[in-house]
Amino acid sequence: MNSSVQTVPVLIIDDERDIRDGCERILTRMGCQVAKAPDGRQGLEALERELAEVVLLDLKMPGMDGLEVLKRIKQAWPQVLVIVITGFATVETAIEAMKLGAYDFIPKPFQPDQLRLTVNRAIERLRLTQETERLEKERLRTLSDLHTEKSRLRTIISALPQGLLVTRTDGQVVLINPAFCQMLALAPQTDPGQEVSCYLPDPAACEMLRRVSAGQNGPEEDAPSLEFSAPGERHLLAQATRILGEDGEGLGAVLVLVDVSAFKVLDQLRSEFVAKVSHELRSPLSTILLQLTLLLGEGAAPQAEGQRHLLVRARERTQGLISFVRDLLDLSRLEAGAGRQGPREVRLEELLRAVLDAFSTQAEARKFQLVLDLPPEPLPTLVADPVGLESVFNNLVANAINYSDDGGRIEVKARAEDGDLKVEVSDQGFGIEEEKQALIFDKFYRVKNEKTRFVTGTGLGLPIVKSVVESLGGSIGVRSKKGEGSTFTVLLPCSGGVTPTQ
Ligand code: ADP
């Protein structure tokens, strides 16, 4: 006997007391909760009071006819299973009862086993129905959960302040959010479905997204990003990330747009501030340097040794400050894009000669041999900002002098090579350890060792050089060995024509 049977309420409606009591005994032993009624009316009242799950119903009763009772039960409680019992079993009444919704039929007289079997079947059927209903409810709840989850995700995506665009592997757009439309001045309800270029105005951003969607970005550029200008003087930062499926297969990409206009303005303010402060500092510092130089000059009154030492230190520090201010000014000029404004045809031979001339006194004082190695034929023309270009070679030659012991050879060699202009600045100075060579182009990086300890500097010279060279479409590299010297190589694309230099 299983536990679910015990709790099943059964109602017996029969006018024969013996049948009622007999059935009650059998069913109670089976564990059912049994109620009894002697006629149809009382049976219906009993159901009103307390609903049964199974009803044993006699068809032939005084008063209300069994078929009528069956009809009413099915009308009011369609889920109740009615088993019809009658001594006047005919095929017609059986068919009639089944038509009215009876679950089963037991002819009188019947054996206890027969009753047990039929009631058990009814209970089993009840359980199956209940289980089916439970599963159906669960299915509906899961569906509604899914629906809620989906609309929750949709709400979150719509509320994101960042612009969002999702593509398939072929670059077709499958999702865009309102922030994306707003950032790019698209209609608020723009539909996805087109190729990326219909939504993104910047060709480079489109190309980046297409590559990432198709999985063509190299492993080194995990989530490539770039900045571009958008309508309404906006600056947007776009970052693309590949979407992978559960098995690691590419499904497309997601592009996130962040409005960086405010940062741009701040950055510009910072650059302007640095430029202004540097500019304001330059003249007083130059005056101080001049005065210190006069105090230490030949015509000045002689000072005690201690005082002279202090003045020499002060002059060195002032010189250091002046070169720091000059670097800061160069840097802010570059950040403002000044290096790329007003390019002109430059004669590299003349420019290099002028640079080396400017260092001649300093080189002589420290017994350096400054050598300019030019080819016999004129070098091709270069179109560039001459001030920026001069700062490149000024920095490289100044470093060659600063990071060498007195008396070495410093050579500047220029050649035309494979459509490029190649300029090498070599020294026989301190050299740079291999592991530090990649770092010296970072802002504020300085190599610290016994040799460089006494050289004042800012760590800004080489970043400026690199930035100018790259703005001209060129590149810079270094070969160096500690203790033996360094060679910095600048490659610049030339404009083609040849200008006579003499
Ligand atoms: P700074 O000279 O103001 O320190 P740079 O950016 O010009 O800044 O150079 C960065 C660092 O690279 C220097 O501090 C120095 O250690 C190293 N370096 C640059 N040029 C040379 C060179 N010709 N020989 C040896 N070390 C150099």
What key attributes describe this structure?
five-stranded parallel beta sheet; Helix Hairpins; 4 domains; Beta-Lactamase; five-stranded antiparallel beta sheet; rod-shaped; disordered N terminus; disordered C terminus; single chain; alpha/beta; 502 residues; binds adenosine-5'-diphosphate; Rossmann fold
Blueprint of the fold:
Blueprint: H1 3-6, E1 9-13, H2 17-30, E2 33-37, H3 40-49, E3 54-58, H4 66-76, E4 81-86, H5 91-99, E5 104-107, H6 112-159, E6 163-167, E7 173-176, H7 178-183, H8 203-213, E8 225-230, E9 234-244, E10 250-259, H9 261-296, H10 305-335, E11 344-346, H11 348-365, E12 369-373, E13 382-384, H12 386-402, E14 409-417, E15 420-427, H13 461-471, E16 475-481, E17 485-493
Parallel strand pairs: 1-2, 1-3, 3-4, 4-5, 12-14
Antiparallel strand pairs: 6-7, 6-10, 8-9, 9-10, 11-13, 14-15, 15-17, 16-17
Helix pairs in contact: 2-6, 3-4, 9-10, 10-13, 11-12, 12-13
What integer value in Å does the Rg equal? 48 Å
| CATH fold group of the largest domain | Heat Shock Protein 90
* Top-tier CATH class of the largest domain: Alpha Beta
State the assembly state of the protein chains.
single chain
Instruction: Quote the average pLDDT.
Output: 87
Q: Which residues form runs of ≥5 with pLDDT under 50?
A: 1-5, 496-502
